[in-house]
C-alpha cells in the first residue's frame, strides 16, 4: 500500500514539473528580427558613413516603450550594403509577463546616424531612417535607407537678427518632421535649443529666424527630428557643423562741420562728416535743402570721413539743412539717426543781419510743459531795447551769452492744450533788422494736455476672489507724450482699507493690462481701482473704476436636508449656503452615494440649491458630500474650508388608506362594507396594486371606539361582510391598507352604518298600529253620535203605523232622545 502511494506522489510531482516547464516554454518569446540595408554604396571602411553608424529602433504607436539601440550596425563589405538588424521578439519582453512587447501591427521606425566620436567616425554627422509595420513573419525587412549628411547652414545677419537657412534632407522614406535649432555664443558651446523649424521640405529650402540678438558672436547648428507620435519627435544625437556670425552695431555720425544750428558759416566752407566706423561709399548719399548746391565727395583711407566741397558758395543768411544716409562696410547696417550728432542738421550761411537760429519750444512743438520758459537764440548780439515779443504776456525776461539768448518767463501757466504763436522783432547792435533765418518767426507751439485715462476693468458688479490674480485694464491718451513714456500709478480704495497696486510703471502701451494679485485681506463690496498717469510735462491724468466686490470669505453650508431615518423617497435634497455660489463648480463638487440621477435648481440669489430626482430614492441610507471644490460666486471663487457631509435614511413608503368607504345592509344582522383601493403612497409616489396584501377592518358601536378587529389577517379585495349583528343597530367601521412588506396605512375616518329591524318585530308593530287606529276611529264615532241633534215630530200624514214586532225578537225599549219630549210605548 505504501509503495502504491509513493508511486502516485512521484507521478503527480512529474506532472507538476512538466506543467511548469510548459509554462516556461510558453513564456519564452519566439525570435523576431527587424532588418534593413543602408547606402549610399557598398564600399568598406570608415570612408563609407554607413559603416560606423548606429541604429535606434522605436515604435510610433506606443511611445511609452523605451527605444532600443544597436550601437554599431554591420559594415558594408564591398559587395553588400551596410545592414542593420535587431531581434524584437526574444530580446524585448515584459519582465512581469514575459510576453513580447513588440507585436504584429506595431509601426516601427529605425533611425540610423553616424556621430562624430562614435565607432571611429570623425567626419560630419550623417543620418537616415526607415520604417514599416511588424508582421507575423520571423523577419521583417524594412525599405533600404540612403544615409545623408546633416545639412550645412548658411547665416544671414541684420540689425539684431540672424537668419539660419539650409536645404532639407531628401528623406527618401519620409520620416523627417522638422529640425531642432541650437544656439551658442562660441563654436565650442555651451549650446541651447532655441526652437524648431517649420515642416520638413524634402530637398527644399528650410530656415529659422532668430531675432533680438545683441552685438556679438552667435553660433548655430541643427539636429534632425524624426516622427514619433503626434506631439513628440525623435531627435538625432548628431548635429550639423556649427556656423557662426558676428553682429556689430549700426554706424552713426560722430561730428559735422558746420555743426547743428551754427550761424554765420563762411559761404565757401566745405561740409565734413565723420562716421563711427568705415562706411560703404557706394551707399552714402546726401541731400541739402534748399537745393542749388552741388557737392564733390572725397573719403579718407579708413572710409570714416566724408568731405563735401562746392564751387558755388552758400547764399548769405540762408539756412541749410543737410541729411546723410548710408550703410557701413562690414555689417551693412544703415546709419542710426538716434545716436551721435543730429542727422539731419541745420546751419546758416554768413549773414550781416541778425536771425533767430533756435527757439524753445520749437516751431510745431506739442506737449509743451505749461510752465516752460520761452528761449530765443539769435545769430548776433541784439540791441535788447529794440526787441519786442508778441503772442503771450510774459512777466519776466533776461539776456545771456553776449545778448544773443533771450529767456522769457511767465507766472501764469499756459492754458491746457492751447496753441500759441510767438513773433519776435528787433535790431542788432549796429541797427540791422531781424530777418528770417533757419527757424520760423513767427512760430507756434501747443501747451500740454494731461493724459486721458479710462479704466475698462474691473467693471461694475464684478466679484473677485481675494488672494487671486485679476487683470486691471485701461487706456491712456490722446496726449502729446507717447504713452510708452508715461509713468503710471495704480491704487485701490475700499471699506476694508486702501493700498497700492503698483507704482512707477514705465514703458506701458495703450491699451494696457496689469495683473493684480488681489490681497486676501480685502473683503468689501465697494472696492475701487484708480489709475494716475503722469506725462513728461508734469501733468497727471487719472480715472477710477466703478465699484466692484472683493470676497475673501470662504462659504459654508448653513443647512442641509433631508435628515433622519424616515425620509420619504420623493424628498428633495436642499442645501443652503452662507453666500451666493458658483453654480457649475458647486454642483460638480457634490456627490450622492449611492448615485442618483438628479436635476439641480438654484434659488434665493444662488444660495439655495435644490436637487430633485424623477425616480424616488430606494429604501436605504444615502450620504451627501459637498466637497471643497464648491466655490462661491466670486471669481475664481473661494472654496469650502472643509467638506460638508451628512446622511439620511429612506424608509419604506407608507401607503394611503382606502377611500370612498360605504355601507349597505341586506338584513337585520349583516352590514356590507365597501371601499376603493389606494393608488399612491403618502409621499405621492405611485402604489402598485401588486404591492397591496389586503386590508384590516375594525368595528365599534362608537366613533371613538373601543374597536374590535374583524380581520386577523389582511383581507383581500375591497369588500367585507360583517355578520351576527344586532338588528336595527348603528355600527362604526374604519379600514387600513396592508402592504406585502406588512407596512400599514393610517385608518380611514370612522364611518357609520345600521342593520335592519327584524321581521317579527315588524308584525307586532303593525298589529299595535292597527289597534291604535281602530281605537281612535271608534272614539271618534262615539263622540260624533253624542253630538247629533233630535229629529222633529212627524205629521199625521207622514206617520206610519207601527210595524208589528216579530214575536221572536222582543222589541227593545227606546231611550228618549236628547232634547225631545218624554214618551212611552203605545
Outline:
The protein has 826 residues and is mostly beta strands. It has 3 helices and 55 strands. It is flat and about 180 Å long.
Can you put this structure into words, describing what you see?
By secondary structure, this protein is mostly beta strands. It has 3 helices and 55 strands. The strands form 14 sheets. Strands 34, 36, 37, 39, 40 and 41 form a 6-stranded mixed beta sheet that branches. Mean pLDDT is about 90; it is low at about 5-25, about 790-800 and about 800-825.
Number of structural units classed as domains: 7
CATH uppermost class of the largest domain: Mainly Beta
Low-confidence stretches: 5-27, 792-800, 802-826
- The overall strand count is 55
CATH architecture of the largest domain: Sandwich
List keywords for this structure.
about 850 residues, mainly beta, Immunoglobulin-like, 6-stranded mixed β-sheet, 3 helices, about 35% strand, disordered C terminus
Secondary structure blueprint with pairings:
Layout: H1 2-27, E1 33-38, E2 54-59, E3 68-70, E4 82-87, E5 107-114, E6 126-133, E7 139-141, E8 148-149, E9 154-158, E10 161-167, E11 176-184, E12 192-196, E13 205-211, E14 216-227, E15 233-235, E16 243-247, E17 253-257, E18 262-265, E19 271-275, E20 285-289, E21 296-299, E22 305-309, E23 319-325, E24 345-349, E25 356-360, E26 365-368, E27 374-378, E28 388-390, E29 396-400, E30 405-409, E31 419-425, E32 443-447, E33 453-457, E34 463-465, E35 469-476, E36 487-493, E37 499-505, E38 512-517, E39 524-534, E40 540-544, E41 548-551, E42 557-561, E43 573-577, H2 583-588, E44 590-593, E45 599-603, E46 608-612, E47 620-626, E48 644-650, E49 659-664, E50 671-676, E51 692-700, E52 708-709, E53 719-722, E54 730-739, E55 751-754, H3 759-786
Parallel strand pairs: 1-7, 18-24, 26-32, 34-41
Antiparallel strand pairs: 1-4, 2-3, 2-5, 5-6, 6-8, 9-10, 10-13, 11-12, 11-14, 14-15, 14-16, 17-19, 19-22, 20-23, 21-22, 23-24, 25-27, 27-30, 28-31, 29-30, 31-32, 33-35, 35-38, 36-37, 36-39, 39-40, 39-41, 42-43, 43-46, 44-47, 45-46, 47-48, 49-50, 50-53, 51-52, 51-54, 54-55
